[in-house]
Amino acid sequence: MRLGIVFFPTVGPQDRPAQQYFSEALQLVDLAEELGFHHVKMVEHYFFPYGGYSPDPVTFLAAAAGRTRRVRLGTSATIPAFVHPVKLAGKLAMLDNISNGRVDAAFGRAFLPDEFKAFGIPMDESRARFTESVRAVQLLWTTEDAVFEGTFHKFGPVTLLPRPVQQPHPPIFVTSARSLDSVREAAEVGHHLQTVPNAMTVEELSERVELFRSSWRASGHPGTGQIHLTYPCVVAADPAEARRKAKYDEERNTAAISAAVSAWRTTSSTAYPGYEKLADIGKRATFEEKLADNKLLVGSPDEVRGQLGDIAQRYGDDLTLSLGIHSGHLDVEDAATTLRLLAEQVLPKLDNDPFAAEERR
């Protein structure tokens, strides 16, 4: 099992200035590199405290690339529907060169009505746009004199510069929170999977993990494919302190997403069946219920090590976990403490040398 960190700010100017948040996040990037964590990721969202400080994850990852040499750099995830595929392919290829081949490219469909409205993109087109754009990006990465004829984009013949360092292209991840079809289709075409346990039941996550693995095998791809799971994480020497801080952070995160999804009260889309229920997300499982289901990694080093063991037993020990350690509501030193305790007291006892992460990849 490999561990990395993901930045998902859920703060706005009234909580913490953006320049302070990014300064703190880059401090944690330095620490993650020093301690041997596998990756650093950044989300893409707009307008709301729910991720709105990160409208362009590639900008942040470029800054991270300039101060690191080993840690992998992942989008979590960038939204193809909101940018031309030529532009997106070029940005990610440039980052792959700046980082000397350390990019993991995760793509998502997006799900917030206000974001689609601002970009003038009909939500009903989101699946078709996603599929077409990812295919166009992959073509640009792998083909000289590329010609593309799609429903939404047409170009060529063009040869993208710079070419990606990683060949045939950076690893492609599909981010899926709900759709079984997205999970199956990702595996069938050889893309990896990124998902969020907090967005579903334990049984639903098990179903998606098994569906991805069985579809990957059935499609004849080598290996098993990568599965990245995202978990909020707070570790402290005193377990009561960890739970107190994590509960506050989770409550603020829930408030942020509740505000961001409020448009679903008056929105429906054929591409997002049942998403109207998201408007009531704040009324769902409590902090204690999420913790009991291992949807949050919270507690002392021993307790979190036990949680990781349970996750490995349920879903497999070949997972990669992305830990949300700094949403902006807790002090940056709390996040640094989490990283240090994981590196010093959790990973070694999992028989997992963090500095060997890249060799195991």
Automatic annotation (TrEMBL):
Ranges where the Luciferase-like domain occurs: 1-315
Keyword vocabulary terms for this entry: Monooxygenase, Oxidoreductase
Signal sequence coordinates: none
Taxonomic classification: Bacteria, Bacillati, Actinomycetota, Actinomycetes, Micromonosporales
Top-level taxonomic group: Bacteria
GO MF terms, alphabetically ordered: monooxygenase activity; oxidoreductase activity, acting on paired donors, with incorporation or reduction of molecular oxygen
One Pfam match: Bac_luciferase
Protein name as catalogued: Alkanesulfonate monooxygenase SsuD/methylene tetrahydromethanopterin reductase-like flavin-dependent oxidoreductase (Luciferase family)
One GO cellular component term noted in the UniProt record for this chain: cytosol
